[in-house]
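Records of this kind hold a single protein each, on a pair of labelled lines. Below, a sample record shows both lines together.
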Amino acid sequence: MAKRSKPSKDKKQAERDRRKRLAAEQKTQHQNQLMRDLAFYAERNLFESQAAWSEAATEVLWESQNWRAESEFAGLAFDIYASGQAMMDTWEQLHIDVDALRQLPDDERDDKGFELHATAISHVLTPEFKRDFFARLDRFRQRLRARHEREQLAQTAMVQLVLETSAGSAEVGDMAWAECMLVYGVFVEAVQQFAALSEAAGALVEDSDITNPDELLNQLATGDSNPKTETLVEKAKQTPGLMDFLQHQSDQLIDTALQTILDDRLQLELFTEDDLRDFQQAFIAALSTVRVDLDLTRPDRLTDQQVQRVAESIDDAARDWLDALAEARITDLYMIARQRLTELARQSDEIAPQAAMLLPLVAADDDEELPGDNDVFVYTLLRQHRRIALAQAQTSDSDSHTDAT
């Protein structure tokens, strides 16, 4: 079979130019359609003064809450767990005192409440949510256009224009999304669902003889069970969404325990220097796959999505490297990890509960093949590799400084 020749630089450049032209054409078509949809406002001279424009924008952002019942927005939602956590984190971030908040005049209390929600929304306003919102808004606009409902069509186009424009403004940023009452209301719904499930989980534990609420979560997270928790699980299944909520909370406990490995607070030291040198080749290859179109020499310029892409590539490399280990070596890793976690779990320091939480993850079942890409191994490998890489970088800097002097 003849080898397929690589595209020339000229062909690659031509393809990039073609994509840029297509993107520019689509952007122009989008903007032209927005202007046509805004004709109702243009005919009333709302664009002739900044004051008139601002007043109209504020009004339609507020009125957008009335679109919640429209079919296009029926499935629009924030993640309830991320939303609940964002609210709790924001309470701490803004140092809000509940009693002091209640004593404020109504206007000040409303302003503080909006600040709280707007800040929390900024934490969960993902690119995926924005794309979903704009796709739904576009379908809504198409329906209004087909029905010749010009005023409401102009309102939807105004909202789209405000939110798209805000993306390029450091001053406005995500605040405009919180001012869109449709988005604000969807977030409040998610927080209310989180609060209701939290209350249901609390009531479930209160009605039992479990003295520590974490006991149920720990057993869900580790897979352990006893008649007491099995009864609670059956009760939880009677409340829609409660089992998912409890499982999510238990997963958070595992994630917290795994994070102690990355933070270097829980050190298992499972891998040798030879292991780390061998993994270095896989690590370099993983970076090579994303270096083609990302400037990794300037990590400070990477977007959150690009950082996530790099992290996922490295995580995949670690899992592939572990899966390729011999079966006997993987068995040894499980045995060593169990021994070290057991020792750490018996200590009387703050790391003991985290070690105990991770122990079930390295339990061995004689009837099943042990997977190499165990999360405990992945996190430990990446942490040990990072530690060695940092030490080498510091040594290199020290040598360079010595040579310079």
